Amino acid sequence: MTLQQFLLILRARYKAALLVFLITVATTVVVSLLLPKQYTASATVVVDVKSPDPVTGQMLQGMMAPGYMATQIDIINSDRVAKDVIKLLKLDSNAVVQQQWRDDTDGKGQLIDWLATLLQKKLEVKPSRESNVINVNFSGTDPDFAAAVANAFAQAYINVNLDLRLAPARQYATFFEEQTKAARTKLEAAQKALSDYQQQNGITSVDERVDFETAKLNETSSQLTGVQALTTDSQSKRGSAKADTIAEVMQSPLINGLKADIARLEAKLVESSGNLGKNHPQTQRAESELATLKAQLESETRKITSSIETTYQVGKQREAQLQGALSSQKARVLALNKQRDELNVLRRDVESAQRAFEVVSQRASQTNLESQTTQTNIAVLNAATAPADPSKPKVFLNILVSIFLGTLLAVGLALMLELANRRVRSADDLADALNLPVLGSIAHTGAAA
Questions:
Q1: How sure is the predictor about 137, in pLDDT bands with cuts at 50, 70 and 90?
Q2: CB-CB contact of 350 with 194 (8 Å)
Q3: I want to staple 32 with a disulfide (CB 3.0 to 4.6 A). Which of 50, 85, 311, 395 is the partner?
Q4: Rounded (to 5) percent helix, strand, coil in the chain
Q5: How large is the average pLDDT for residues 292-320?
Q6: Which parts form a coiled-coil structure per UniProt (predicted)?
Q7: What end-to-end distance do the CA atoms of the chain give, in Å?
């Protein structure tokens, strides 16, 4: 179909096309004027994704996730936020709304669910491009009501977002509070066990007692070693075959003096016996003196050997006493070491319980603060105000659209009518219909036939 053919068809069918066009435009205008006016109020909230946690001061990694803003939009569109809006505006207690719900649902279901669905249908949430600003739009026939609902959605979103953050913190706070009580009980039990053990054993400073008793044990051991050495020496001297070979005998000045006197008298006796004879009174006196000196020497030697025997006996007794004292002291030191080990175990239990209590108590304090905070990273940037002009219906825009659609419908109707009843309106139509070339044409003069 050529442009000429198309224009000829429109000229021939212009009445029908014009009628369709006028009906379309008129209908659109009438409907636009009859439709109730809708007012759209918009509240703007800003989401700060870079603010640190007010308690810990740390950045929350979830806010930096790519889907964080999409999640926030889903939260605003959620039933929980819509129900919170109903509670804020007390819509469920309105008698008119209750009657409308009964008429619409025959009293089936829950009023708050029905209201939430109605509010969500008129809610539109749009995030700003390349920013953290979210526009909350609500449409209604009453501009004041639309503004109130838009602001309520913004406030309900903040409340729900804060509650979503605080709910886990409240659970953690309850959990850590219980754990803190359990840790405190365990710490008190460990401290009581340590105190009871110290009181039962009379321990004030076990380390000092162990050091003192260990030093005493070392001293007793040194004394025993010394006594054993003396006893061994006495035993060796005691078992000697010749008394005159004992060191004490050989080193005694009295015995050495007696030996010198005996040697001198023996020499004198030999000389006297040679000069005077054995029966001479002088010789006999010398023999008597020599016998006396030898008896004295033997007596002194016996005294020394007797003292060695006495020293040996005393040493054995002392050794036995020191052996008993050493065994007793060892047992005492071992008992003190055992007490110290048991005391150290109890102390470590107290220290472990103390550390656990401090960690749990610190975490409990932190979660308690987190559960009580009222700070959030969302704030209302612009509150909604009652719009002065309606947002719907847009009469001018609807007329423009109706003109475009009416034109399309008019052209389409003209073409459909032409196809249903094909006419020859030009030489091209005749050539197409007969499949013969056109040799000539007579121009239409407009005269009466």
A1: very high
A2: yes
A3: 395
A4: 75, 5, 20
A5: 76
A6: 255-303
A7: 29
What gap in Å lies between CA 211 and CA 332, rounded to an integer? 12
Q: Write b or e for each residue in 315-332: b if 16 or more Cβ atoms lie within 10 A of its Cβ, otherwise e.
A: beebbeebeebeeebeeb
Query: Around 311, how many Cα atoms within 13 Å sit in the side-chain half-sphere?
Result: 19
Closest CA to 160 of 59, 84, 58: 84
Q: Mean of the pLDDT values across residues 357-370? A: 79
Parse the chain into domains and list their residue ranges.
Answer: 1-35+406-438, 36-172+374-405, 201-372
Closest CA to 62 of 81, 73, 49, 46: 49
Q: Are 297 and 255 in contact (CB under 8 A)?
A: yes
Amino acid at 240: S
Cβ neighbourhood burial of 121 (10 Å; 0-12, 13-18, 19+) = exposed
3-state secondary structure of 50: coil
| Pairwise CA distance, residues 44 & 155, whole Å | 11
pLDDT at 207 over 80: no
pLDDT of residue 449: 36
Token pair for 110: 């829950």
Q: CB neighbours (10 Å) of residue 45?
A: 24
Q: Is 258:293 a contact under the CB 8 Å cutoff?
A: yes
Asked if residue 241 has pLDDT above 50, the reply is no
pLDDT band at 6 (very low <50, low <70, confident <90, very high): low
pLDDT score of 448 more than 60 = no
Residue among 138, 161, 152, 135 nearest 75 (CA): 161
